[in-house]
Amino acid sequence: MSVSRSCLCCVKYLMFVFNLIFWLGGCGLFGVGVWLSFTQAEFSSLPLSFPSLSAANLLLVAGGITMVTGFLGCLGALKEQRCLLVMFFVILLLLVLTEVTLVLVIHIFHDKLDSKAQDELKEGMKIYETEPGLKKSWDNVQKMFKCCGVTNKTDWYDVLNGTLPSSCCSVGKDQCDDGWSEPCYQKARQWLLANIPSVLVFGVCIGVVQILALVFSMLMYCQILCAEKHLD
Prior knowledge:
This protein has seven helices and no strands. By secondary structure, it is mostly helical. It has one domain (about 1-170, about 175-230). The protein is elongated, with a radius of gyration of 24 Å. Keywords: Disulfide bond, Membrane, Transmembrane, Transmembrane helix. Its main location: membrane.
């Protein structure tokens, strides 16, 4: 076996291993997204800007794309096909650039994004009395997190003519005069941050694997070109 063929085999199996880890990581992200979706099913009628709901959708999309990309990488490595390798490289490069852009946007504009999400939730509160699904979701959120309103319990005053929904108080009270003091947006965000750190660490590891997979796909493509030139 020639030296170039030996190098190609080495790069091939290394790329396969990294892409297998990448694919398994995608399965993990998708699984966490599914778990988060089921956990938040009781208030699924709320706008998607609600912290835990937006995180669940983000994980589902990221996990699905990662699984498909990892599969393409494994297939391209085993088949040694330049077309699959180029497709894998382009998709993975776009994915990495999108992730970096998303992280930067969230970091730079997090205050504006929070404000916009809160405004959207407050706007949705206006149909609390006319939309049974939304009413049930808000009641479940407030009972679960022991909170009231989006940013303050006074958010309900414009919606319910100066009163509070019964879910703003302890269970068993038909009329609520003085509800929970903590806002639901902040409580939901705290819950998410308390339950998601391991996923963030996992995401960083997946990011490292993505970079390595990009490098190995480039190396393998070059090795295939060299091997084909030697054959000619």
